[in-house]
Amino acid sequence: MGIGNEDVDRAANYLADTAMAIAQVIAVGVAVIMLVVLAMKYMLSAPGDRATVKKHAVVYVVGAVIMFSASAILEIIKKLSGAFSAKPE
Description:
Helix content is 85%, strand content 0%. It is mainly alpha-helical. It has one domain. The two termini are 25 Å apart. The model has no long low-confidence stretch (mean pLDDT 81).
């Protein structure tokens, strides 16, 4: 007995969902750790060095926004591809 197309589609969707969830968890973890480190640097730095830390904070915020928006865009694409590949009954 062979594997049907529906089984392959289901397995591919499961693999994609799992990979997306793992990537999102890793991204959130890295973002939180970087935020904590950046906040500690800001609190412990001298008043003259805080401008440098603020520059890094701007880069962090831009990077975090790009990362989370890319994740959301991939999620939207996944949902749309599932909607287009759904078979009418």
